[in-house]
Amino acid sequence: MLHPDFELDFNTDEIYSVSDFLSLCHSTIENNIPICWLRGEISNFSSPTSGHWYFSLKDDKGQVRCAMFRLSQRHIKFIPENGMEVLLQAAPTLYEARGDFQLIVRRIEPMGVGNLQAAFEQLKVKLRDEGLFDTQHKKHLPVEVNTIGVVSSSNGAVIQDIIKVLNKRYPFAEILLFDCMVQGEGSAKKLAQAVQAADKYGQCDVLILARGGGSLEDLWAFNEEILARAIFAATTPIISAIGHETDTTIADFVADMRAPTPSAAAMLATPDRLELLSKLSKLHANLTQHIQQTLNNYQQQLKQLSLGMPSFNRQLNVFSQRLDELNTRLNYQAKITLNLNQGKLNTLFEQLKQHSPIASIKHKQQLNQLAKTQLNNHIQHTIAQQQLDLFNLTQTLKKAIHHSLERQKYKLAAHSAGLHHLSPLNTLSRGYSISMLENNQVLDSVAQVKIGTLINTRLGDGNLYSEVKKIEKFKKN
What pLDDT was estimated at residue 359? Predict the structure, then answer.
């Protein structure tokens, strides 16, 4: 409340509460300042878990707070960064909870390049720094191709061009089409799922990711991060054939090989039939010539061997005679070895009998039995000695306990006599008394009672109950 002596020089109706004043400013700003375009540099950019963007737009002379809500970001392909110069469309407003002036951003464009181009460059730098474009991760195309997977739309001319080229160039390969969207909302996710399905299928020797030409907006699905990571994670070699030769997408950088057109991709994925037939003819001629030359060489060697080879019967007689000689020598050598080993065996047997462990074992058994008897005697003696010591200790303990009890009884009697001497009951028996109020409070001053107060006087042999008739105070010296 205002002080009564305080004189007002204005109408009290003109006083605003803070919230009313902020609401008035909010309405004034939104109703009088139109939606406008601003150019400046982004600073203090933040994106909390809510998905909204908060930042400041500044130039060399001032700055203003900005907020761009998540729903307004659905057409924005790039992520704003500190230091980026942008052009934005915004509506001015006042955030009443803090009293802050701010701009609600509806559209934002990077200066110098378009929205999609900025997003393309951002993702390109990000994936390049992560190593997704590195040559060391590129897979080689297979030499032998039996099945070719094509990730594209069944409605376009791309698949027809690929089929036409393969029928002329390499009709031996099977073509599997993984049909999916190649343009529009959600097409990047569909393409990534198709690449994953084709790779997981495991029967394709090579995959062709293809689409016809178009604008940057038409080809944007091939610039999405989800598709780039699906291509990088695939184990099957992938050829990208997107748009025309001048069109370049993120998928081209990540793929194992890039073809300028879908038809060129089909040529890269397979060998030429005519070239194969030509190579086959040359290989057949070379093989035939090599076989004929080898046969001629073997025939010459066979003729030379037949001229230098003795007759069969003569050679057989020589081998038979040689076999008889070897058999005689073997029998003689076996007898000598057997006799020698028998003598060694007899010698070892005699040595073994001399070193027999039976006598040693019997002696050690007798020593063990003697040690066992001595150990039992020692144990019995130890047990008897311990029992005697236990009995002596028990008697000593009983005497100590009896002596301790007698000493404690004497102390108890002395303490009882002392307590009886100090007992108030003993004092009362000598003629003294204790006066108490009805609540058993000890009466130690006349100030605690007045005429008519009931008191209880405790004597040595009973209680007296009385009523105060007169109070007399003693004078202090």
Answer: 67
With H, G, I as helix, E, B as strand and everything else as coil, classify residue 75: coil
128 falls within a domain: no
Q: Which two tokens stand for residue 218?
A: 């038409």
pLDDT confidence of residue 196 = 92
DSSP state of 442: B
CATH number for the domain that contains residue 245: 3.40.50.10550
Which CATH number belongs to the domain containing residue 30 in this structure?
2.40.50.140
What SS3 state is found at 385? Answer: helix
pLDDT digits over 239-290, tens only? 988 877 677 888 888 888 888 888 888 888 887 666 666 667 777 777 878 8
Distance of CA 74 to the CA centre of its chain: 32
pTM assigned to the model: 0.43
87: domain range? 17-112
Q: Would residue 190 count as lying in a domain?
A: yes
Cα dihedral: 393, 397, 399, 405 (round 10): 180
Stretch among 9-18, 186-195, 216-225, 251-260 having the lowest mean pLDDT: 9-18
Q: Locate tokens 């004092």: which residue?
A: 427
Cα–Cα distance measured from residue 161 to residue 166, given in angstroms and rounded to the nearest whole number: 9
CA dist 29 and 27 (Å) reads: 6
For residues 299 and 199, is the Cβ–Cβ distance under 8 A?
A: no
